[in-house]
Amino acid sequence: MAIRALVFDTFGTLVDWRSGVAREAERLIPGLDGGAFADAWRARYQPSMEAVRSGKRPFVDLDTLQAESLDGLLADLGRADAGTAVKRELVLAWHRLDAWPEVPAAMADLRKAFVLAPLSNGHVRLIVALARRNGLVFDAVLGAEFSRDYKPKPALYRDAVAALGFCADETLMVAAHSDDLAAAAGEGLSTAHVARPSENGPAGGETGPAVAVTFAARDLADLARQLGA
Amino acid sequence: MAIRALVFDTFGTLVDWRSGVAREAERLIPGLDGGAFADAWRARYQPSMEAVRSGKRPFVDLDTLQAESLDGLLADLGRADAGTAVKRELVLAWHRLDAWPEVPAAMADLRKAFVLAPLSNGHVRLIVALARRNGLVFDAVLGAEFSRDYKPKPALYRDAVAALGFCADETLMVAAHSDDLAAAAGEGLSTAHVARPSENGPAGGETGPAVAVTFAARDLADLARQLGA
């Protein structure tokens, strides 16, 4: 088996969502505990996608889901009086996240040897914003908007393999989350776990895979080394 | 109106399909008139997409359509004995096209100022192959496979505008074909015509727009200058 293409989870794997959301939230709502706010918002992330995954509603993008979650979150926090402009800026916080430090250089190395695409629940313009901010270059943008559904629905992994045109096991799903990798492996993709021990701040993050994977890496630079890139 | 994103027709606008297909055909089938072969194949291009556009068949990618057209073309030419390997390589000729000479440098300049994406009837792996071969960098790959239909169906232009997230008139459709630009303008996009007077070899090509456009350019470098990139 030779790896030909890498497809990437984005939030948590390539970019540090918690620090970025916390920073923007504290800027926009003085006195807020940004980290706790980011955690509470992220806790609504998986449930928000479920109505699309289950077919109860047609596909809507992550900005729409985040805006809906935000309304509930602000109400729970007694901050329902946050204005429309602040709420719009908070949703855009997810467009202004920084990559983990080693990511830009490792991605540049990987792109010399492999075809690269995000396979994320983020939609195209969100991914474009993150890629531009952090100097990441992809060959295509796959994932939620391409498949009009959300991970871990199997179609997203299958569509990504078909779009890039290599065999499933030549396509390497890269993620910091074992559930994402398990779903990818279920569709025959090769898998790489990247440890992100500080993804969730004080609550930690996955330091290693909880499922069988093809590669387990300390970070993306380590994965590039293991792949000979 | 400020332009924020450029979306590109690919075959004829960014890459010289006729020379590339002719070159590969002459390599693979000795004694063939490559230019005439390319013209005859291209003549089957628009009709081949019609079954998808009309809803008579589900979306299939351009490699599939080109392979089907090729069987008919070879039969007409009395070359139906061409083997499977040769036929596969001929389909891949469309993955090995060269950009028009000024395109790589102009695209690099444009990318400093604008978000760039193909809006082509080519599918993702075909676009990735052409982009890699010619050193073109896109922010996303939109078009046929993203929308699962073929231009000039209006959905492709609307989907591209929605995916990039700017207003329709901030999104500039760039093409060497007036019919493509007319369809884009019908969905509110701004339009740029790029002259490709040798697209069809001895049969010429569009030296200027046949419809009203926002910009008319001699080539992509001229368009970049007009846009201040």
UniProtKB/TrEMBL annotation, chains A, B:
EC class name: hydrolase
GO terms assigned for molecular function: (S)-2-haloacid dehalogenase activity
Record's catalysed reaction(s): an (S)-2-haloacid + H2O = a (2R)-2-hydroxycarboxylate + a halide anion + H(+)
Recorded family membership: Belongs to the HAD-like hydrolase superfamily. S-2-haloalkanoic acid dehalogenase family.
NCBIfam families named among the record's database cross-references: HAD-SF-IA-v2, HAD_type_II
Cited function: Catalyzes the hydrolytic dehalogenation of small (S)-2-haloalkanoic acids to yield the corresponding (R)-2-hydroxyalkanoic acids.
The protein's name in its UniProt record: (S)-2-haloacid dehalogenase
